[in-house]
Amino acid sequence: MTRIGTSDLDILPLALGGNVFGWTADRDASFAVLDAFSAGGGDFIDTADSYSAWVPGNSGGESETIIGAWLADRKPEGVTVATKVSQHPDFRGLAASTVRAAAEASLGRLGVEAIDLYYAHFDDETVPLEETVAAFGALVSDGLVRYVAVSNYSPERIQQWIDIATETGVALPVAVQPHYNLVHRNDVEAGIIPVAERNHLGLVPYYALASGFLTGKYRSTDAAGQASPRAQGAAKYATTQGLAIIDALEGIGAAHGVSIAATALAWLRAQPTVVAPIASASQVAQVPDLLDGARVELTAAEVAELDRVSTWTPAS
Q1: What are all long-range contacts of 38-42, with beta carbons under 8 Å and residues at least 24 apart?
Q2: Residue 229 above 60 pLDDT?
C-alpha cells in the first residue's frame, strides 16, 4: 500500500481511470471492470465531474453516476474516490460558488458523504487564486471533502496555491495530477516533480499509458486508421524512439512475466513522488495487466534502461 502525499489515504499504487465509464464502457461493462479491479485488490478510482460530457447525448457526470451506483450496489470497503471540478458544462471554472455547487453535485452523483480527494481539474486564472484556495479549504472544513489536490497546474501556480494555503491556514493540497509517462517526461521532471518533492505532494499521473500506445497495441502509424477512439491519439507516438521504448518495455516485461503496459506503469511508480499512475480499462480483460503494474518491481538497471531509451533531446 502507498500513502498519497501527507494524507492518510492508503491505496494500492494504481488508480483506475473513470474517463471511459459512460463513454467506451456502458453501465454493465463499467460495473464488470470495477468488480474485477476491486476483486484484484484495487481500491483507488479516479474520475471527474465532466466525464463524459464530450459524448453525444451526454451532459457530464455520467462517470460519477456509474461509480456511485456501483458503490451503492457493491458496498466495497476502503475504496478511495477522487474527482475533479472546473470542466462540467454546468460548473465551469473555479469561482468559489462554482466549486461549492459542483462539489455538492458530485457528492449527490457519487452517493458518498465526503469526496476523498478533490482536484482543481484545470487552472482558472480568471478567478483570484486566493478565492479558489479558500473555497477548497472551506469544503474540507465543512466535511464535504477530505483532501484537496490540483491537476494540470504549472509548477509556479502549484507553489502559489501552497503558499496561499499556508498563509491562510486552510487545507494544503496532498497530490498533483500531471500528464506523465515514458513518452511525455521532460516538463514534469523539470518542473512538477521538484515542487512535489519540496512540498511532500504525491503524483498521480494521467495518460500513464499514452492513450494506449504504451500497451504495445499501436506499433505503427497505421493506428490512425483504426476504429478505436484512442487509436489516433496513440499513433502519434509511433516514432523511431517510441517504438524503441515499446521494444525495451517488452523485453523487461518478459523478464518479469508481465505485459508491456504493466512494465510502463511500473516504471512510473519508480519515479520520485509518484504514488499511483492512472490507467483505464473498458473491458475486464484489460484489468489484470493494470493490477500487475501496481505490483511488479523493476530493478534499478531496468529503470535506468527505460530512462535511457525514453530520454528526449531536441534535434541539433
Answers
A1: 38/74, 38/76, 38/79, 40/287, 40/288, 40/291, 41/12, 41/291, 41/294, 42/12, 42/14, 42/16, 42/287, 42/290, 42/291, 42/294
A2: no
Quote the Cα angle for 242-221-264, to 5°. Answer: 35
Which residues in the chain belong to E strands, given as ranges? 2-3, 10-11, 15-17, 44-46, 80-85, 87-88, 91-92, 115-120, 145-151, 173-177, 202-203, 278-279
Work out the pLDDT band at 223, boundaries 50, 70, 90: very low
CA–CA separation, 299 and 305 (whole Å): 10
Relative to beta strand 202-203, strand 10-11 is unpaired
DSSP letter, residue 274: B
Contact 21, 282 (CB under 8 A): no
- When pLDDT is cut at 50, 70 and 90, the band that residue 221 belongs to is low
How far apart CA 26 and CA 307 sit, in angstroms, is 37
Q: Coil, helix or strand for 273?
A: coil
For 293, the 3-state DSSP assignment is: helix
C-alpha cell at 90: 454546468
Omega of the bond leading into 52 within 30 degrees of 0 (cis): yes
CA-to-CA separations, 308 to 239, 261, 302, in angstroms, rounded: 16, 18, 10
User: Which amino acid makes up residue 313?
Assistant: T
| Among 203, 204, 184, 217, residue whose Cα is nearest residue 283 | 217
Q: What backbone phi and psi angles, to 5 degrees, belong to 17? A: -75, 130
In this prediction the pTM is 0.95
